[in-house]
Write a structure and sequence with these properties.
There is one protein chain. By secondary structure, the chain is an all-alpha fold. It contains 23 helices and no strands. Helix 6 packs parallel to helix 21, helix 9 runs parallel beside helix 21 and helix 10 packs antiparallel against helix 21. The N terminus is likely disordered.
């Protein structure tokens, strides 16, 4: 047997693609088992869970030498888009820690509470995340900018920290669904060959009801907690708000998130040293603490990237695509197929844009065969990828939010009302749209 025939045989584990998906099942089982064993899901050691799952995933690659399996894992852990995210984690840790040390977070909270009663802060924070995410087109950038403020607000108003952080995370995905500059919007429209404006109109009918209901829920919850949320007004130090104001303004203007975080960190140092909040050495020490605090987050992200690359290499994504497309027989079934396909693929990639690009051509073929409009297919790809990304404990958004708030991503998930409501509205739209046509 020559080398090429041997290579072809090794690259044929597609029929056993279900084996490649076992690590994801193990990941869920380990999280559940450890949470039950420790009687507290917030104490689940995510690094240990991913270490065990990553090692187990290597055994699912049949026909490869150990060195090749490790190389596959390492390739996934070192992908350029993942390393870019690591850069964001590092700079976000440095900015958040230095901003908190010089009083920028407290000053921003003081200004917010001066303008808004504590009872509407929860709903206001969700609304702010929606607006910012539409302007900057990235959920990660919104989370970096607002989660430190949400953490301080939770402490000052007596609101549950996971609830406050979840309001920001949920609102951050509003922009991913509607913003014209969101990478998910660009990916969905390009793969389906439709106009952004048409896709926006289709998305808007589904997304807006979910956002309005979510906003009302947060407002009602805020009023219910209003008595315990009464806080004494503090003196306002507007110059300390400058770092956050500059970060938001630059982000809204479309400046690269890495540059925004660098400039924000430098400005915190300038304002903090000038104000006497810390010395030059204190500023550097606060940045170092913030970067060190992101260590677990970076390790988890890289192990997740390697794990998911092994799943892809083993044919897990191909198995999902073939299994789902085989059962399509109607237009409504085609819409369910596109939605489930991109959601499950997102579980295997932990990146909604990559998930859309991975199944975009398949979704286009399905939509053309069963009469699903291009903008409708693009809308479903965008929405369901964001739904899944919004609740993945190993997704970049929840990892970033939990890292900045110093809590477990599992703590945040029960309060993610927006992704849950969006899922309900999207599923309802498939049922009603299919019945009408």
């Amino acid at each position: 047997m020559n080398v090429s025939q041997h290579e072809d045989r090794r690259l044929r584990p597609r029929r056993r693609g279900w084996v490649a998906l076992l690590p994801l099942l193990l990941l869920a089982l380990l999280m559940a088992a450890m949470g039950i064993l420790m009687k507290d899901f917030s104490k689940v050691p995510m690094t240990v869970v991913f270490l065990i799952t990553s090692i187990a995933s290597l055994f699912t690659l049949r026909g490869y030498r150990v060195e090749e399996r490790v190389h596959t894992f390492s390739h996934g852990a070192g992908r350029s888009n993942l390393l870019l995210m690591v850069w964001i984690f590092i700079l976000a840790g440095a900015f958040a820690s230095s901003a908190k040390a010089m009083g920028a977070v407290s000053a921003t909270v003081d200004l917010t509470l001066y303008c808004l009663p504590s009872s509407v802060v929860l709903g206001g924070l969700f609304l702010a995340a929606c607006v910012v995410s539409i302007c900057i087109g990235t959920s990660v950038g919104t989370i970096v900018a607002l989660v430190p403020v949400a953490s301080e607000m939770a402490q000052r108003t007596g609101t549950l920290l996971p609830l406050m952080v979840a309001a920001v995370v949920g609102g951050s995905f509003f922009g991913d669904n509607l913003s014209f500059i969101s990478d998910t919007t660009v990916a969905a429209t390009r793969t389906q060959g439709c106009n952004m404006r048409d896709k926006f109109r289709t998305n808007f009918r589904i997304v807006l009801p979910a956002a309005l209901i979510c906003f009302l829920i947060y407002v009602v919850m805020g009023f219910e907690r209003g008595q315990s949320g009464l806080v004494q007004q503090q003196a306002l130090y507007l110059w300390k708000v400058l770092p956050y104001a500059m970060v938001l303004i630059l982000a809204i203007c479309g400046v690269n998130v890495l540059l925004v975080l660098c400039l924000g960190t430098v400005l915190t140092g300038i304002v903090g040293v000038a104000d006497g909040a810390y010395s030059l050495g204190g500023w550097i020490d606060s940045m170092a603490q913030g970067i060190t605090g992101m260590g677990d987050l970076i390790l988890i992200s890289m192990m997740a990237g390697g794990l998911l690359e092994v799943v892809r290499k083993g044919g897990g994504v191909t198995y999902l695509v073939r299994g789902l497309t085989r059962r399509v027989s109607s237009r409504r079934g085609a819409e369910w197929c596109i939605s489930i396909l991109v959601a499950l693929t997102n579980c295997c990639t932990a990146n909604n844009t990559v998930a859309i690009l991975s199944v975009g051509s398949v979704a286009k073929d399905i939509s053309e065969r069963y009469g699903v409009s291009r903008q409708r297919a693009a809308s479903l790809l965008d929405i369901f990828s964001c739904i899944m990304q919004g609740i993945l404990p190993y997704g970049a958004q929840l990892l970033m939010a939990s890292g900045l708030a110093l809590i477990s991503p599992i703590d945040i998930i029960p309060y993610l009302f927006y992704p849950m409501l969006l899922a309900a509205c999207a599923c309802l739209s498939i049922v009603l749209y299919g019945r009408r046509n």
